[in-house]
Design goal:
Strand order of the largest sheet: 3-11-10-9-8-4-7
Distance between the termini: 58 Å
Radius of gyration: 26 Å
CATH architecture of the largest domain: 3-Layer(aba) Sandwich
Helix content: 25-40%
Largest sheet: 7 strands, mixed
Number of domains: 3
CATH topology of the largest domain: Aspartate Aminotransferase, domain 2
Structural class: alpha/beta
Number of strands: 16
Number of helices: 15
Shape: globular
Length: 429
């Protein structure tokens, strides 16, 4: 007997019907269709719409989205490092004068605005913006030391996250590495010897961003090498503009003392400093090259400068952040808002969420800055590992677990997001 065709009443829903049934999810229709097709292939007679919803929710979590950082790591690389404020946009579109000189009507340079402001903020003659700090180091070395030597202390031949290694960057630039001193001790005379015996065009000082050498150690300060006759490049990495933090009412936090800054490095005699825009500077991902105008000009004319140039969104964000520094209101920059929140303020917020789970914690700067430094903080502590549960919330809450205890550090959470943590904890109870 031949199989009877399905009636309209018992026919399974079409792909389009399934996609429409889950259209409340915030996904473009083509992605909902993809979820529907996959659900039909996997359902095996089950609830195909529920299966499609599960698949669509997984797809949505692969897209770039806002998350709540409750780890206590202020500059979390996995979450974009420094958070930045997005200004509300007009309903209509507009262009920017990225490379337009409004005075002459001719083509200008994208470096004429944000870069000049940054130079002013850190006391440099000039500045150049590229897409990240690794690019900044590469460009400087390629422009100023191609086929020549670059002297670097053995204690500063660092590797940071993502496999970024100073020796390999030097190789890619066309320069060659001249190792100076030993792992734990490098003196001025070591640099003198290296310069005398080799064709050295630059001294590169590299910030030990993610480690420390302690014990029987010695380093050579920038101020001790200014008369050696070659430019000194200081890769300070973290992006602290001024160690005095004049934009903070109470001066620099205690945990920040000792961190190299752009202004003080230049005052000490560095010819160029390089640093990240998305670390202690508190802006978007970018690499900043600041220092003597003649050297910056050589960097800007090198072919690599176009390869690593940033776009208009980066330049606009950098401009906004730098203006905040110049106006001495950088405490409104999200990073500094977090970093200057007192423990008492955090305890009050935690108690409003749950007096049962309130606890003192230790936040960290993160982002390859200030290794080993802990910042007094407060938040919530729950028994058991609930990391995955919090990560599955909407918006996702990223926290940490230690010794089978889940910690939610409020220093890295905006106060307006406390309600989401409160709601999530109530589900666990």
């Amino acid at each position: 007997m031949s199989e009877q065709p399905l009636s309209p009443l018992n026919r399974p829903p079409s792909i389009d019907q399934i996609a429409r049934a889950i259209s409340d999810l915030d996904l473009p229709h083509p992605l909902l269709v993809d979820a529907a097709r996959e659900a039909v292939n996997k359902a095996n007679g089950g609830d195909v719409i529920s299966e499609a919803r599960k698949i669509a929710e997984i797809i949505s979590r692969t897209l770039l989205t806002d998350v709540i950082n409750a780890t206590g790591v202020l500059l979390h690389t996995n979450m974009g490092r420094s958070p930045i404020k997005i200004e509300s946009q007009n309903q209509h579109f507009r262009f920017s004068n990225l490379e337009l000189d409004l005075e002459t009507g001719e083509r200008g340079s994208r470096q004429d605005r944000s870069s000049n402001l940054i130079a002013r903020a850190c006391g440099a003659e000039s500045a150049l913006v590229v897409n990240n700090c690794a690019s900044a180091v590469l460009l400087v070395i390629a422009a100023l030391a191609e086929e020549r030597g670059v002297a670097v202390s053995r204690s500063e031949l660092v590797e940071i996250g993502g496999g970024f290694r100073i020796p390999e960057i030097l190789e890619q630039s066309g320069a060659h590495l001249v190792e100076v001193g030993t792992t734990n001790r490098t003196r001025r005379k070591d640099f003198e010897k290296a310069i005398t015996k080799n064709d050295v065009s630059l001294i590169l000082k590299v910030h030990q961003s993610n480690y420390r050498i302690v014990g029987f150690t010695e380093t050579t300060e920038i101020s001790d090498m200014t008369d050696l006759g070659i430019p000194i490049i200081a890769d300070i990495g973290s992006g602290l503009i001024d160690s005095a933090c004049p934009w903070l009412e109470n001066g620099p936090p205690k945990w920040l003392i000792g961190e190299p800054s752009a202004k003080q490095s230049l005052e000490s005699g560095a010819d160029i400093v390089t640093f990240s825009g998305d670390k202690l500077f508190g802006g978007p991902q970018a690499g900043i090259i600041a220092g003597k105008a003649e050297l910056i000009e050589l960097c800007s004319k090198h072919p690599l400068s176009r390869v690593v140039r940033p776009g208009s969104l980066t330049m606009s964000a950098l401009q906004n952040v730098t203006i905040s520094y110049l106006e001495r209101r950088a405490s409104s920059i999200p990073f500094w808002e977090m970093a200057t929140t007192t423990v008492d303020e955090l305890r009050i917020r935690a108690s409003k969420i749950s007096k049962e789970f309130i606890t003192d914690t230790s936040a960290t700067p993160g982002g390859g800055t200030l290794p080993g430094v802990e910042i007094p903080s407060a938040g919530l502590k729950l028994t058991g590992d609930h990391v995955e549960f919090f990560r599955q919330q909407n918006p996702p809450i990223i926290c940490r677990v230690d010794n089978n205890q889940t910690f939610l550090d409020l220093m890295t959470v905006h106060p307006s997001d406390d309600v989401f943590i409160d709601n999530a904890i109530k589900k666990i109870r």
